Amino acid sequence: MNRLSTPWGVSELARFPEDPRDTLRAWDAADEYLLRHLAGTDEVPPVDLGGSVVVLGDRWGALTTALAGHRPVQITDSYLGQRATRANLARNGAAPDAVTLLSTRDTPPDRVDVLLIRVPKSLALLEDQLHRLAPGIHEDTVVVGTGMVKEIHTSTLRLFERIVGPTRTSLAEKKARLIFCTPGQAREPSAGPWPVTYTLDSDAGAGSGVTVTNHAGIFCAERLDIGTRFFLQHLAKSRHLAPGAGPARILDLGCGNGVVGTAAALARPGADVVFADESFQAVASAEATCRANLPEAADKAEFLVGDGTAGIPHESVDLVLNNPPFHSHQATTDATARRMFAGARDVLRPGGELLVVGNRHLGYHVRLRRLFGNCEVIAGDPKFVVLRAVKR
Known about the structure:
Strand order of the largest sheet: 5-4-3-6-7-9-8
Structural class: alpha/beta
Number of strands: 20
Radius of gyration: 22 Å
Largest sheet: 7 strands, mixed
Shape: globular
Distance between the termini: 37 Å
């Protein structure tokens, strides 16, 4: 639990899910800097928060919780971030209806008087959301972004300038910086380039020929990343995808654009496939990818935005396919992978398989052996390994 002191009081904050071993805070210097600016200084008057306030990309709800008295609208791509916001609002005594929580797939407000932006890691997601919000921005809208210095690049500022209007930055404080953007008269039209599609070549193994759809913010959105390509090349080594295998229930855990789950469905016609991710953009991409290649399979598939395997029944799955992230925003951590592996073990039936691809140096085999009592390398190259663990 963290205590963030703001001009609106002290907020008790935590990430979601709460983990006593997690040393990462639910806020950082960029959040503090923006909140101080909004309250005003000797040189700058406070920002009028009496109109429609929209908070885009608030990572764990620190900004939204501090500003709850102004009834902001939060827009996020993260289910976990949204859950953290709900929990933080509750623990700080905010009324349940004090804040409107929207995902990046929802229709944004018609009018935006104050737009506060926590700069995301994905420039494409920022571009997409600025395009979506642009119709509600007017010439008097106050637009302020925030981020750590290492997160704000020349390309970030050019994006604000191109879609919203003239842009400048503040001086850095505690390695954080603010972005000030003045809505211009002639802004770029609000139609962005997303989603994008491409078709996989013959070197993509089980995914060869699959048409992939990516909404903004998906990792390697304009091409297949090399880790996923390596995974697809060795997917057939699962006994549940081998010729003659019986019906199976397959979980694409942390599905991203759904190419792995779609390739598995192509390899095992008649399988029931579940696509699960904490990103709203990812699950929308996975559904579009599956429907483009297997419309009938998509009709019976499940597309779940949630917290890992939460909501999936115990011992209901035969095969889990997983390419776990090892970053949480800018922080490197194996916390997500650990939770995914434990969740996979819970939902697998006895005899079920977990197939994992990861960078060789991450040492996932150690964790899998502890959890499952077994782990084997079924494919490897100097950078990646594909691991198999079987639930006994």
